[in-house]
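User: Please run a holo structure prediction.
Assistant: Happy to. Please share the sequence and the ligand.
User: Here you go; the ligand is copper (II) ion.
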Amino acid sequence: MTTSADWGWPLGVFIPEQLSFVRAFNNPTTSELIGAGAASLVVLGGLALAVFLIWSGWWRPIWRDWLTSTDHKRIGIMYIVLSLVMLSRGVIEGALMRTQQAAGLNGGFLTPDHFAELFSTHGTIMVFFVAMPFVTGFINYIMPLQIGARDMSFPVMNQVSLGLTVVGATLVMISLVLGQFSTGGWTAYPPYTGKVFSPGVGPDYWIWSVAIAGIGSTLTGINVAVTIYKERAPGMHLFRMPLFTWTALCAAIILIFAMPPLTVSTLMLAMDRYLDFHFFTNDLGGNMMNYANLFWLFGHPEVYLLVLPAYGIFSEVFATYSGKRLYSYTSLVYATMAIAVLSFTVWLHHFFTMGQGANVNIAFGIATMVIAIPTGVKVYDWMATMFRGRIRFSVPMVYATGFLILFVIGGLTGVILANPTIDYQVHNSVFLVAHFHNVLIPGVLYGMLAGYHFWFPKAFGFRLSEGWGYVTATLWIFGFAFTFFPIYFVGLLGMPRRSVSYSDPAFEPFMLVAVFGAAMILSALGALVVQLLVSIRKRETFSVPLGDPWNGRTLEWATPSPPPEYNFAIIPTVTDRDMFAVAKAQGNAFEKPAEYEDITLPKNTAIGMMVWVSGTGLGLALVWQVWWLVLVCVIGMLVVLIGNTFRTDAHRVIPAAEVAAAHQAWLDQIAAATPVGRLGEATPHNKGLAAQEAVQ
Ligand code: HEM
Ligand SMILES: [Cu+2]
């Protein structure tokens, strides 16, 4: 056995046996070969992408227009691209775990360690690098448009946040090739992730990817909250803000308060591992329950931070495709705030069985159940919004309906788990796995997919193929049902979560149904890709440059598609909720302003990319304990960030004449276009100008 000492200090604790290819070569089992296969996908995929970009010459426009952009819209799209890339890895891992468990009666083909690595990367990726960037991406793209702003309050910091998030995702991807990821689950509980139990670098990858990305998310929270407080258009009172913006504000507040406990707990875990502290050990005065408390003080608000913006998207979808105002807007807003506050009062339900005594459990059990009340209010409001509406069953509505039905089931199983006595029976069984997928997939993922379909034409100027949209949505909905409903039953039969195999033949039939469902979900992912490719090929037919393809109600639809970088030629004055719907009804939605002004925007900067490079270097150096590289990267980052504060020439001005010309061209196009009725929405006649209907 070679040790790091043989390689000397420049490489820290790295040894070649840590490369997954070398491991597979030395020990060619199925498990190792799958690992090496995944690693080669990462390496070859990265190389292929690099070669393609250089060969096609696209790297230049991608660098100039995207990677260095400070435009909130482009940053939002990049977040969503990141999350879709990570989603494909996460779903493939989920399907692989389902396959293992389908074959897992007394065996299977994966080693326990490999399975543990899979549920750890899967959970970590899904939560931190799929759901969070997806949500952040939508907030970035849509929120400033909905409040009539030109950009976020801190455009450069926005880019830095994205850079930090990508650092985390990059580290998780690198862990496939160099060394191993943690085997301690997405929650990284000690003592599993302590030095004694896990001497390798796995937990360190988890720690640094989550800590660095977490700092990015904290900054995003601040940026979003400040933007909503400070950048609203004249007249956009808080109670005139669209519901999605409300959920963005509540999510931002949750981010600001929930991310620090996570950062602290990961750093304390790092101190345990690197510096032999004993915060979370079982000896020398440590106590791992401190970790559970800190982690879930983040972890539970986190799930609401993900689901609230999805609620916001569904609210916009229900209102738009029912052709009505949201029913009881005010109660929806208060329910959102109530959920945001309550989300901080329930964390202890994650360790009911760890011996804190009955009274504490009762208090947290009740607090948990109370969240069902505002959630119920929302569900009724959405149903009342549809009631007597002119409903169009467009693709986002399919997701929204699937959500409404499935999420109620998932929520109810949550109320079941909130009862400590019942939790004693099913905790750590796969019943819990079924529950949280039942809320996360319909609640968060369908929301994001609905939003993707709803706002795609806004961002790119053409619709997505509806036909493929229905195929994708159906596959997601039924695939989910087949995968996770059987898991409830196996959970009640007593199958523990995170088990690589089992010996009770009663579990097997359920596992076979579940793997069939997982295959449907994989096809749903495939259909999503096909839909995108088909839509790009037919983008002329699907084009909606005028900007309002669905008869939208809020301000983002009052711009051309894609919107100019400054969003609005002149900042709108808001006099009502659902401002754009009202303006359309009054016939003054597309008026030429008396005069235009010069618009000042921030210049492009490479600072986000520099943060990404130095952050990734820093993460890797910390994982492998290459201390000279840590120093280099920290100094590099400081130089970049401090250097940036000396930039004086950071803005450029778009002359009023240029704004006027672009706006006039758009108004002319609108004047020349034929409005399309709602029934023609999915036809090539839809160029993004909606025919007027009576407003409700
Ligand atoms: C799309 C299809 C998906 C499949 C087939 C799938 C499958 C699985 C499986 C088999 C496990 C391990 C269960 C166990 O503990 O034995 C798991 C765990 C987990 N999944 Fe998924 N999943 C999917 C989607 C998602 C999504 C969308 C999210 C979140 C947004 C998610 C979050 C998690 C989390 C947090 C864990 C727990 C990891 C841990 O125990 O540390 N999954 N999933
Ligand atoms: Cu919780």
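The pocket of protoporphyrin IX containing FE (ligand 1) is lined by residues 91, 94-95, 97-98, 119-120, 122-123, 126-127, 130-131, 185-187, 430, 433, 437, 440-441, 444-445, 483, 497-498, 518, 521 (CB under 6 Å).
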